[in-house]
Amino acid sequence: MRTIRGQVAVVGIGETAYYKHGQSPEPEFQLALRAVLRACEDAGIDPRRVDGFASYSNDRNDPSRLTAALGLPELRFSNMQWGGGGGGGSAAVGNAAAAVAAGYADCVVVFRALAQGQFQRFGAAPPGGTVTGEAALTFPYGLISPAQRFAMRVMRFMHDHGVRPEAQRAIALASYHHAQANPRAVMHGRPLTPETYDASRWIVEPFRLFDCCMENDGAAALVLVSADRARDLRRPPVYLLSVAQGSEYRNAARGHNAPTYATSSFTTVAPRLWEMAGLGPKDVDVVQSYENFTGGVLMSLVEHGFFAPEEANDFLTFDNLVAPSGRLPLNTSGGNLAECYMHGLELQIEAVRQLRGESTSQVPGARVGLVISGPMVSPVSSLLLGTADTL
Amino acid sequence: MPRPVPEADGLDAPYWDGTRAGELRVQRCRSCRAFQWGPEWICHRCLAFDLEWVAVAPRGRIYSWERAWHPVHPALKGHGPYIVVLVELPGSGGIRLLGNLLGDPRQAVEIGAAVEAVFEHHADATPPFTLVQWRITP
Question: Which positions in chain A touch B67 (Cβ < 8 Å)?
Fold first, then answer.
C-alpha cells in the first residue's frame, strides 16, 4: 500500500503570541515570519535550510515573498490547499509531507498567519451590494456567515439522533478548562461555567456564543523533514502515521443540496485515515478536533468512530473530555474556542506537544494523537501523529 | 442599508425569471430526467449538457432550520431574530430550497412540517427580484 506512514516527521513547532481579534501590534506578514523562525529555532534548524512552504485557506502570505524576505537559497515547493475554512489544516501538513517523501523538497514549513483585524473578518459579512452564484441563493435570506451556513447541518443531526444541547456544552467546557492551564491561551484566566454557557446569547440556534470559535490574530508554523533527517535533530520527532482529505459524494452541491447533509464531511475521509495508519479509534490517546462550532466537533467524533450518534449524550460529558484522566481528552490547549483561533494550526502544534510530553494539560504517556480539521466544509482533512515507538 | 440583492448569472437566470413570474423553476435533465438543484452546467447523474428548466409544485417539507440572532450584516441590525428553512421537495426528486420562514420569528419550528412557497417581490430593487419564501401550510 502507498502510505506516508513513518516517512516524515514534525521536528519543530512555533507560534507568535496569540492576540484578540484586531489587537496584533504587528502586520500579518511579520507574524508569519516570526512563527517560521520560532519553528526553526525549536527544531534547531538554520532557517536557511527551509526549501518549501505549504498552507491553506488562501493564506495571504505568499511563499515567494517569505523566501525572499528570509533570504532562502532556493524555493523548491510551494503549495496551497484549496478550500476555505480550516478544512485544510491537516491536508496542508499532508501535502508538505508528500513533498518531502517524493523528494520535491527537504525541509517544508506548514504555516498559517491571520490578522483578521487588518483584513475582512470571517464572522462578518461584507456590506451591501449584489450577490451572484451560490451566494444569490443564500445571502438574501440572511444565510451569510459560517455559523449560519453550518447551523442547519447540526440542527438536522441533533434532530435525527436525539442529541441534547448538553453534548455541545461539554465540548465548550472542556476547551475552556484546558485553556486555564495554558498561559498562551487568549481565554487563560477566563473560566467558563455551565451556568455562564447556558445564559449566553444565541448566535444562531443551535449555537450559543460559546459554541462558536473566537477570531484572533497570530501565526503558527511546523517544520517537516524526512524521518531519516529527523533522527539527527534535537527534538523528539513526531511522525505522521496517516493523512486523509476530501469529502463525500456531492458534499458541495449548491444551495445545501448535499445528499448526506447532516455530516461533518468525514464519512469517507475518516475510514481512509484509519486504514493508512493501521489504527482505529481505540488506539488514540488524545484528540484535537477543530471547533468552528461545537456541533461540528460532535459530528467529527462520530464520523471518526469514537461513538455512535445515539451515544453522543452519554459520551460527551465534561469528565470524559478533559486531561489527564478523561476517556478521550479533547482540545487540550483550549483549541479554537479558548486558546486561539489560529485557524486550527494551533491544534497541530498541540498534538505535537502532547506526543513530546510538553502539553500544559498532558495526557500521561500519549503515543498517538488525532487532529481533525475544519468540519462541515469541503474538503476537510485529518491526520494521525505518533511517537517513535508507534512505528 | 438594503439587504444583499441577488443578481442572475448565465446559469441561474431562468430561476430568477421564474420567481418574478410567480413560478418555481428548477433544472431537470432532458436526457435522464433527473432533477437538479442548485443549478449547474452539467447533469450530475448522466453527465449530459442538456438541462431544461421546469416549473415544480411550490410545496415541500422542512428538512432543517435555524434561527439567527446575531446580525452579521449591516442590513440585519435590529431585525433579529429570523428563521431560515431548508425545504425538501419530495415531489421533485427531493431537491432542497432555502428561504425564510414567514410569520412569528420566535415560533416553534418542526422538522417535517409542510410548507408552501410565497413569492416575495422586490420590484423597487436594482435590479428588481423576487425571493421564494415559505410559510407553514394552513
Answer: 202, 204-205
Distance from CA of B22 to the nearest CA of A (A): 17
Disruptive mutation site among B17, B25, B64, B79 for chain A (greatest number of A CBs within 10 Å) = B64
Q: Read off the pLDDT of residues A42-75 as tens digits, 9 standing for 90 and up.
A: 999 999 999 999 999 999 999 999 999 999 999 9
| CA gyration radius, chain A | 19
ipTM above 0.90, yes or no: yes
- pTM listed for this prediction: 0.96
Residue type, A262: A
Contacts of A159 in chain B (CB under 8 A): 64, 111
Q: How far is CA A77 from CA A13, A90, A185, A238, B63, in A?
A: 19, 17, 32, 22, 45
Cα–Cα dist A285/A282, whole Å: 8
Nearest to A142 among B1, B9, B76 (CB): B76
Report how far residue A96's alpha carbon sits from residue A9's, in angstroms, rounded to the nearest whole number: 11
CATH 3.40.630.10 is held by the domain B13-136:
no
Q: What is d(CA A109, CA A128) in angstroms, rounded to the nearest whole number?
A: 38
Instruction: Look up residue A49 and give its DSSP letter.
Output: G
Neighbour count for residue A73 (Cβ, 10 Å): 10
Domain extents in chain A: 8-119+212-390
The CATH code for residues A8-119+212-390 is: 3.40.47.10
